[in-house]
Write a structure and sequence with these properties.
301 residues, alpha/beta, Rossmann fold, GMP Synthetase, Chain A, domain 3, 2 domains, 6-stranded mixed β-sheet, 3-stranded mixed β-sheet, 9 strands, binds guanosine-5'-triphosphate, binds magnesium ion
């Protein structure tokens, strides 16, 4: 039994522009997939807690939606959730895509970070595909504008530098008993995870604005006596044309979405999954308070 007096535990918030690799990094730090990832911007819609352990230290990693200039109500709720997730953190990690330019998105976040009192660290991600000189220029420019306590160069995808970063974070955590049992990896319920995994397929398989026009709700989640689980989900879209695209010819697209989501879920849950998907047109889902609550977002006026 470990000595409770030795335990450390604290909050590490990851913020950054959409697509910087925050969710990929949270998964890498936790050591398994808890957050969905896609090449499309604005994949993460709400804050999600990943739990990682390093020696005596438990890291509570807050994955947040990418921060950008919000336009729709949903955007505003997402950006609000992102900054809310950073509030009171023991350290804020600014994750920057080392391959992309710095640009207005990073500027916006740097300005907001300057006013915050939490300790900050800079993480330049995607070193596997970014040019070294470019990474160094980014790091220098950002450090001139804000006093980051540490600067890291990593690849969340290949794992390069991730173990070292994890150890450094673990050391910084305050003395405190652990908040979660040793085997808990996230604060999401299996129901929420199931909805996210299907939403990930929408991001991976659909083009243009479709992923942004859709949401997924788990309506029924039932453990069967045979050890499998039965999951019923609704994919909400705004227009009948969008529904037609998601269904595809003879329902082929929806079948593919369902089949990949089911395979992924069975792997993550460690049990057979029966997945039933239903596509529903709901023009105003973005104005449905209940849905915001379900996906863990606060309603913004
Ligand atoms: N080559 C490379 N790709 C990466 C790395 N980290 C993330 N990616 C890719 O970058 C894309 C975005 O990754 P996400 O983890 O979804 O990014 P995010 O910051 O969570 O994005 P939002 O949730 O939209 O804010 C995905 O296609 C990832 O596979 C990396 O270190 N190297
Ligand atoms: Mg994300």
């Amino acid at each position: 039994m470990m000595n409770l007096n030795e335990q450390q535990c604290g909050l590490v918030a990851l913020v950054g522009a959409p697509n910087a690799g925050k969710s990929t990094l949270v998964n890498a730090l936790v050591g398994q997939k808890i957050a969905i990832v896609s090449p499309k911007a604005q994949t993460t819609r709400t804050k999600l807690l990943g739990v990682a352990i390093e020696g005596e230290s438990q890291l509570l990693l807050v994955d947040t939606p990418g921060i950008f200039e919000p336009k729709r109500r949903l955007d505003r709720a997402m950006v609000q959730a992102a900054w809310g997730g950073a509030s009171g953190a023991d350290v804020i990690l600014l994750v920057v895509d080392g391959k992309g330019g710095l640009g207005p998105k990073v500027d916006l976040i740097m300005e907001a970070l300057a006013d915050r009192s939490e300790p900050k660290m800079l993480v330049l991600n995607k070193v596997d595909i970014a040019a070294k000189d470019r990474l160094l220029v980014h790091a220098q420019k950002l450090n001139e504008r804000l006093a980051f306590e540490e600067t890291w160069f990593i690849s969340a995808e290949t794992g390069d530098g991730v173990a070292e970063l994890k150890a450094a974070l673990a050391k910084r955590m305050p003395k405190s008993p652990w908040h979660f049992p040793e085997d808990q990896v996230s604060d999401a319920t299996d129901r929420m995870l199931a909805a996210e995994i299907t939403r990930e397929q929408l991001y991976l398989q659909l083009h243009a604005e479709l992923p942004y026009a859709s949401a997924v709700e788990t309506e029924r989640y039932k453990e069967r006596d045979d050890g499998s689980v039965e999951i019923h989900q609704q994919i909400l879209v705004q227009r009948p044309t969008q529904r037609a695209i998601i269904l595809g010819k003879g329902g082929a697209r929806l079948k593919e979405i369902g089949s990949r989501s089911r395979t992924e879920l069975a792997k993550l849950l460690g049990q057979p999954v029966h997945l039933y998907l239903h596509v529903k047109v709901k023009p105003d889902w973005e104005d449905d308070r209940g849905l915001y609550r379900d996906i863990g977002l606060d309603w913004v006026d």
